[in-house]
Amino acid sequence: MAKLKGAAVFGQSGGPTSVINSSAAGVFLTALKSGCITKVYGAANGIRGILDGKLYDIGCEDEKELFYLKNTPSSALGSVRYKLADAAEDETDYKRLLEVFKQFNIRYFFYNGGNDSMDTCNKVSKYMQKAGYECRVMGVPKTIDNDLYGTDHCPGFGSAAKYIATSLMEVYQDARVYDKGSIMVVEIMGRNAGWLTGASALAAMKGAGPDLIYLPELPFDREKFLEDAAKIARANNGNCMIAASEGIKYADGRYVADSGKRDKFGHAQLGGVATALGEMLREAIPEYRVRTIELSLLQRCASHCGSKTDVEEAFEAGKTAVEMAVAGKTDFCVGFERTTGKNGEYGCEMKLIPLSEIANTEKKVPREWINEEGNFVNEKFIEYALPLIQGEADYPREDGLPRFARLKKVIAEA
Amino acid sequence: MAKLKGAAVFGQSGGPTSVINSSAAGVFLTALKSGCITKVYGAANGIRGILDGKLYDIGCEDEKELFYLKNTPSSALGSVRYKLADAAEDETDYKRLLEVFKQFNIRYFFYNGGNDSMDTCNKVSKYMQKAGYECRVMGVPKTIDNDLYGTDHCPGFGSAAKYIATSLMEVYQDARVYDKGSIMVVEIMGRNAGWLTGASALAAMKGAGPDLIYLPELPFDREKFLEDAAKIARANNGNCMIAASEGIKYADGRYVADSGKRDKFGHAQLGGVATALGEMLREAIPEYRVRTIELSLLQRCASHCGSKTDVEEAFEAGKTAVEMAVAGKTDFCVGFERTTGKNGEYGCEMKLIPLSEIANTEKKVPREWINEEGNFVNEKFIEYALPLIQGEADYPREDGLPRFARLKKVIAEA
After folding, report:
1. Of A110, A183, A302, A330, which residue is least crowded by CB atoms under 10 Å?
2. Is A90 a catalytic residue?
3. Contacts B307 to A, Cβ<8 Å
4. Neighbouring C-beta atoms of residue A242, cutoff 10 Å
């Protein structure tokens, strides 16, 4: 394979995670040292920045700051939720992309995101091929939701899982200090896949986590839920902890978080699922005190409680994308293959997944990892998730607070 | 002063903090090694446990586990919110306390809590003196609210402040990733004192915190708030971050969190202050996206993000209480005196505050530490708070998760 000389652009897409910038660091630091990548650009707000010709010249950044990206949460370049039209229907965006690629002599396109972003990668690559423009396209996986197909797990999941398990262990202590107990409902992210909510079982494994766990993979049964919660509270001095995924639905497809309330214009007011479950509990078993907590954005950006395993793997994913592209690969997304050592120790090897396979497919928690009653995950889930939260992200500090990367963001001229 | 031989009891009271157990470790480890304290008891659920004669024999615990208490959040012995009646009006509880003190030969009473708990200490001590029962009584301060009178600061505040500033820095990154900004409202604990909400300014000092800060010390002006938020959002691509104390009130004394909504029985439905401010913003400036976050219980039990300074000072407060009582002092609460070294470095010395002075007095954020407009704190607040969040609580871990103390809680026999 002949060496392809030219510039590289990297973009971040979709919801942030606490390690997405670690992948950025992996891409940038590797690309800057690669012999054949002539310029390294960061796209402002993902594909949007390329369409707008707004690219940052990463060569102008201090190397030290690029290393700081490893522990800087969220998308340092800015993110975007933008779905490219099918090129067969509307070529406008693609023509513009090609124009910018030519303008900056971009021959390497790295895109970091989830399902939708891999679809974007795939479409861009197909178009460039059709247009006869030589360009290597590589996806870098990312999502706290852990729902990407074809990879053992996704960068971002381990750190969010570690934060959730840690925080639940702490809240568990707090919830039980008074002589009269309380029912605690915790809302966790995950619209269609319950990986993050399942991670709350890691706290339970330590004797300080939820009694009941509800994933979006199974229909939510209101009566059974109220029975289970009441039974547990009754047997435990009023105490019961519940972890619920934001996306749980009834068997008829209605979201549990849809409170049924309508505003003055008749629009549905979607409350949180914790609020909805809390109201149900207060009505059905008013003898118990109920508190609700929504982990909200905190869970996806808590780099101060990051998993070292996750941070390192995210970096490695970015690095591998560049190395493989330089070596001639294109149209792949980097993925993780779990390996098991002689003594059962966890290992993780990089692999490549064809973009056409990974795009737009969701990986859910297998039914056999959820208990029969559908209100907890079993030891298979724990075995899967536990290695991913190991090690502490040893983040740099300044004045007792995290020291995030400070990028100059010099706008590149074509 | 003659040595007083006898047992010691320690109780925890009021809302938990992430370092209240560090004070417990200080009390226990010091008392167990004191020559004249014959037995060390932990009261189950504070004063409630003493009234019920439910005491744990701390001598039965592994010393290693007592050290683990330093980084175990919340009240390991259980807490209570129980206000003793005036002895002049109703002696029932006091008689019972005296009975239990005699039964267990308790000659040292250590009580860990905030304003109310110091009031309890004071009342118990007065009664024992009147009854001619020799007993030394010492308060150990505790409250994330930092509102205790007579001490530079309170154990628990530094760690909560560090967690709040860290989390806000992270959320700030997350809130600004899209090309269209958002207004973010964060609700922080503090019913009457704004110390914790003020701590969000530490994140702002790092360029990644709130633009507006509202403390309960000043009346909340709805019109000015909406104007300020709109102005900032307009100037910053729709971005504005707001930190508000749960206890902010209008000039007429109404809580901002009182949404005015009534349930079917006509009871006021108190929502969170973030929800209330969020609704105001959505109505007044609907062109901006608004998100709300309630830091909830997370902020008071996040020992994984504890301040080393705070953890050590909390331990020292417990240790000092025991040492001073053994040396003959009684009717004091341990307090902190801030010292400044030759090069301006922060120091903290233990001091004793008469219980009668500390009980039931609240310390608020001084007006001159808040800016003139009443929507931010100034550099005096930063100078005060910054030293308190220094150092990382290096907590023990197991399986990538915190390793909390595991107490046997052996019930003591009189």
Report:
1. A330
2. no
3. 400
4. 26
